[in-house]
Amino acid sequence: MEKRKLGHSGLEIAPIAFGGNIFGWTVDEPTSFGLLDAFVGAGFNCIDTADVYSRWAPGNRGGESETIIGKWLKRSGNREKVVIATKVGKEMGPTAKGLSKAYVLRAVEDSLKRLQTDRIDLYQSHEDDPETPLEETLEAYAQLIRQGKVRAIGASNHAAGRLSEALEVSGRKGYPCYTSLQPLYNLYDRREYERELEPVCRREGLGVLPYFSLASGFLTGKYRRGADASKSARARYLERYLNDRGFHILDALDQVAREHHATPARVALAWLIARPGVTAAIASATNMEQMNELIRAPELAPAPADFELLDSASAYE
Domain 4-242+264-302, what fold? Predict the structure, then answer.
């Protein structure tokens, strides 16, 4: 399996990362174990999660995804085979949120305990915290790296200006630098990343790990004109894609998929992991059929004309 360098982190990962937001939400523990076994068994190695996953589900408190991954790591003995990426900063409770040094140092211990590991390979700021000085957050990460509890740090959901500012502070004051960015980016959601964030990432050599790589399942082709998306657990995310531009993208995906005897999902992932600067696409699977789509995506080699068709169909103003 091809491995790609994640920025300047020293980490190397396969071009598809498993999105762990579904664990403890739409996928139970036994099914999660089977999916993780299949993913790693196929040669992939990056598992992405967050402390807040999946706090939004009824009856959950947050930490469910990390807990399931931790149990799987202990049961499988695969810790040395995988790169564990998790995040901090989203609200876990009224006083448990943000990127203050005190909170980051407390939250990392909770994540390590749930993950049943002594280190986090990639620890990411889940969202910007404008109320905390960048220096304070970066000092917390510096301490964790010195202690061996974190190997590298990344950012998620950061605007280009704040990301650039954080990198400048790191360089000027000698703090560890963000080595990766996790942005919303897929064949539909292109504008913000390509116009604002991509130039920063390419200039600074950051690895890029797009989330919602399949646009909450829309790019699989499952939700089409007249389809009832309200029955999906991701219904609140899907509505924004059900428009003429979205359906035009699906038509293009269908055309390329037919030519390559593939599926729209595989084509959409192949497009994304071929984009300049993208290290790996984060995608989830809730069953083995979907897992096979993820596993086979890197095998697909669309022709230049296919990429031109997809780019044209998904063009934005």
Answer: TIM Barrel (3.20.20)
